[in-house]
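Lab meeting, item 3. Inverse folding demo.
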């Protein structure tokens, strides 16, 4: 229960920070739609989705606040299509951790694709482990067992991040360059 309260406070702080930012809303709404549709299109393949890659690239090219607001709204809106449960706030926190890591390593990630792909791989595990906390709190399962059982799915998520980052980074850079100047 404490984690839910922390997640709600963090979400409120992200919203307040976003309201004060000068970032144009149009590209973010487009990225939000793309991330939600990407989750929906790939829902039949467990943990394979372009959403994490889109959020990482948003943090890299637009900024932390924009990526954080997307990290908040993607699980809420995609939850309307795929189902909402106690894990939604943990999805937000998981993506927020990945976005924060990407933003912290931004200077290095802008120079070379290899570190970005490595962070994408690690991001799959970081996201999965964060969501596992929700199952631990709600169901009461041992966290180590959850880590072991989720490892193949976290690996699939991490590898799909690598593939999506490799495929969409050039397109992302080109489109955002035109929209944001």
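The presenter then showed the designed sequence:
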């Amino acid at each position: 229960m404490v984690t839910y309260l922390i997640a709600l406070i963090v979400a409120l702080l992200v919203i307040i920070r976003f309201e004060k930012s000068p970032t144009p809303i149009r590209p973010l709404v487009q990225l939000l739609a793309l991330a939600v549709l990407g989750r929906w299109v790939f829902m039949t393949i467990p943990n394979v989705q372009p959403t994490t890659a889109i959020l990482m690239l948003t943090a890299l090219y637009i900024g932390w606040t924009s990526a954080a607001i997307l990290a908040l709204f993607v699980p809420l809106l995609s939850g309307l299509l795929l189902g909402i449960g106690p894990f939604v706030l943990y999805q937000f926190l998981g993506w927020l951790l990945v976005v924060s890591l990407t933003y912290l390593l931004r200077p290095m990630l802008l120079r070379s694709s290899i570190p970005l792909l490595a962070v994408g791989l690690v991001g799959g595990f970081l996201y999965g482990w964060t969501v596992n906390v929700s199952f631990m709190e709600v169901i009461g399962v041992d966290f180590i067992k959850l880590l072991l059982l989720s490892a193949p799915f976290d690996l699939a998520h991490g590898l799909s991040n690598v593939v999506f980052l490799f495929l969409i980074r050039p397109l992302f850079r080109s489109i955002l360059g035109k929209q944001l100047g």
